[in-house]
Amino acid sequence: MTQATVVDTHPLDTILRADRMPHIFCPGCSIGIVMRCYAQAVLESGIPLQQHVVVSGIGCTGRVAGYMDLDSYHTTHGRAIPFATGMKLANPNLMVTVFSGDGDLSAIGGNHLIHAARRNVDVKVICVNNFNYGMTGGQCGPTTPLGAVATTAPYGNPEQPFNLPYLLAAAGAGYVSRWTSLHVRQLKQDILHSFVRPGFAFIEVLSACPVGFGKSNNIPDGLEEMQLYRERCVLARGVPLENLSIDLRENRPIYVGNFIDRDLPAYKPVTRVG
Amino acid sequence: MHGDEACAEGAIAAGCRFFGGYPITPSTEIAERFAQRMPELGGVFIQMEDELGSIAAVLGASAAGARAMTATSGPGLSLMLENLGLGVMLELPCVIVDIQRGSPSTGLPTMAGQSDVMQARWGSHGDYSIIAYAPWSPQEVFDLTVLCFNMADRYRTPVLLLGDEVIGHMVERVVIPPVEEIPHWERKHPGVPPPATGVYRSFEPDPEDLIPPLPHAGEGYRVHFTGLTHDERGYPDMSADTHHALVTRLNAKIQSHAEEIIRLEEYFMDDARLVVVSFGCTARSARRAVREARAQGIPVGLLRLVSLWPFPEAVVRELGQRMDAFIVAEMNLGQVRLEVERCIGRPAWGVHHAGGEMIHPEKILTAIIAAAKNVGAPGSRKASSAGGVQISG
Questions:
Q1: Is the dihedral of CA B205, B206, B211, B212 positive or negative?
Q2: What does the alpha-carbon distance between residue B229 and residue A121 come to, in Å, rounded to a whole number?
Q3: Which of A237, B298, B314, B329 has the largest count of CB atoms under 10 Å?
Q4: ipTM
């Protein structure tokens, strides 16, 4: 049996706040994987670290800002996107990424999300979608599938969930992708691509929350959810956006990929000289 | 120039180059002026989707180094209050202008009110202190907007300008001084370069004034700002001791500088035995009433609250020792009167109206005459002809 060894350095030491470890994420949680993809993309971006800023809202995913050794802002629930918008417009040299969860971005922050997409403001949004409010113990939200069990939906969720890529496309977003926390290479590449592509980008990352969502919905551990992703994920080619809704409990394809990549003018403040 | 335009021009003169707002009567002309002027000056005007987004964008711009503001009215201020708390907690300077209208709710959108005094002070959750000024003329809107930016940067905190519809839409002469005569207090910036290793302490207060220097995004300090209770590095620290120390300092950095923040004007106070306390548009009526009472031989003066918060407790308390009576005139049902009574420890006369029209000088004069006659009489409460409540003390 091999002995575990403690290494002195880690490839991401330069970009994670080691003094903040251990993190708050539960065993089996996907957020750390998504954070790593973002961290690697930042390191490989060629953009000086000083120019990268990460802004988050509230929730488990919102805590990512606190672990990145970058200028990082952990704001209020739902308000990460407008905060990031003000920051980017005040200093256009910054590469501003919003890293937050599905509840934060699409429920309480839903209005800001669609308007940022419509405006095509140059911020990159990484949305960890774990189908529930994890930090507060597994309440249902606007991404919880119809019928799924949550602490605030003990008899099953009576509401239809958002299909986020469809929503964002309808709101006018120029760049919309979906991956899962299993698709680490594609996700990193997609984040990197969003950095060089001016304008608003929305990257949804389906993620395991075994404690909040999984245990009440028959996917009790993170590894099982990853296996499910491996079995069912299909690269969407020509699939209509309205067919991208997800229900992990149903045995049907989960479509992933980049769905929208269109050149639109990125939002710039009006200037008038003379 | 009218008051709302003077506000935008004051902000521009103060170096504000970021406006994020949502239209709302009677503040909309401020946004319109910014929409016209920012493109000429290379600044940013953005009309956000709501007031929640407006204040968030302003805080983000401030964190990136801009002098930034928004403008709204009572209903919009209500929506901004959550992130006003974030601004307090992150210690981000910004200016929030509230051109007050008749409230609560949609109330009287096009008519004046002064009923956001307590909302401005206590509206966000938690214990915090705020700075607020209340102009009584378009010129003073200009001057106080400049002061708001300077105070925000000096104390690393959001500052409110509490105007009202009358002043916002009043047209008067406004003198804009040459740029070199506009006072400009610099934001306190870290005097040291970013540390090569370790963490810059973005929330370590200067022991002199309790205010930490503010590093901006993009400067290499690798800051962490969180609305959670945090230590001096900005890292979350869920301990009761850290929380108590942080919240106490956030209050103390304002309260211990109250004398530098407070602005008051006194009229006819040298030999006064009675004092009218008022602010904003109502102070204009109060000044006229005091003049007329003087003509009738009543020794009354006017204390005009140019700043509303922090409340000038020491001044009012001292006046309480030597004044026979206090008359508080305001376009609400007694918000500042409560503060005055708290300081003087006895009832004051109130001339109140819920909003919608200026309080006529005649009504304030009536209260002054009644107060002068009742000096020494036992306290009694009765409805007044002014439509509010008078309390004799």
A1: negative
A2: 31
A3: B329
A4: 0.96
Give the minimum alpha-carbon distance from A206 to chain B in angstroms, rounded to a whole number: 26
- Give the integer Cα–Cα distance in Å for B20 and A81: 13
A55 part of contact set with chain B, CB < 8 Å: yes
- For A156-192, write each residue's pLDDT tens digit: 999 999 999 999 999 999 999 999 999 999 999 999 9
Q: Which among B57, B90, B223 has CB closest to A86? A: B57
CB-side exposure of B1: number of CA atoms within 13 Å?
20
Helix B51-63 and helix B74-90: axis angle, to 10°? 30
Distances (CA, A) of B172 to B110, B139, B159: 19, 8, 25
Provide the token pair at B313.
Answer: 């407790």
CB pairs below 8 Å between A and B: how many?
Answer: 150
The whole-angstrom separation of Cα B330 and Cα B277 is 9
B54 min Cα distance to partner chain A (Å): 7
Kindly report the CATH number that applies to the domain delimited by B264-392: 3.40.50.920
Q: Say if CB A58 and CB A77 are below 8 A apart.
A: yes
Q: Tell me what pLDDT residue A5 has.
A: 83
Q: What is the pLDDT of residue A214?
A: 96
Contact A86 B60 (CB under 8 A): yes
Kindly state whether B125 is in contact with chain A, defined as any CB-CB distance less than 8 angstroms: no
Chain B's closest residue to A47, CA to CA, is B218
Residues of A in Cβ contact (< 8 Å) with B201: none
Residue A233 near residue A180 (C-beta atoms within 8 A):
yes
Calpha distance A248→B289 (Å, rounded): 73
Hey, is the C-beta of A14 within 8 angstroms of any chain B C-beta? no
Residues of chain A found within 8 Å of residue B92, distances taken between Cβ atoms: none
Closest CA to A217 of A109, A269, A114, A145: A145
Domain coordinates in residue numbering, chain B: 3-181, 264-392
pLDDT bucket at B385, cuts 50 / 70 / 90 = very low
Residue window 65-94, chain B: list those with CB within 8 Å of chain A: 65-66, 68, 82-83, 86, 90
Domains, in order of start, for chain A: 22-261 (3.40.50.970)
Q: How many CB atoms lie within 10 A of CB B214?
A: 23
DSSP H or E run through A56: strand A52-56
Most B CBs within 10 Å, among A15, A50, A76, to test the B interface:
A76
Chain B residues touching A94 at Cβ < 8 A: 64, 217-218
Nearest by CB to residue A111, choosing from B49, B199, B221, is B49
Instruction: Give contacts of B40 with chain A, Cβ < 8 Å.
Output: 272-273
> CA A144, CA B82: separation in Å to the nearest integer?
27
Q: Which residues of B touch A17 (CB under 8 A)?
A: 199, 224
pLDDT tens for residues B269-306? 999 999 999 999 999 999 999 999 999 999 999 999 99
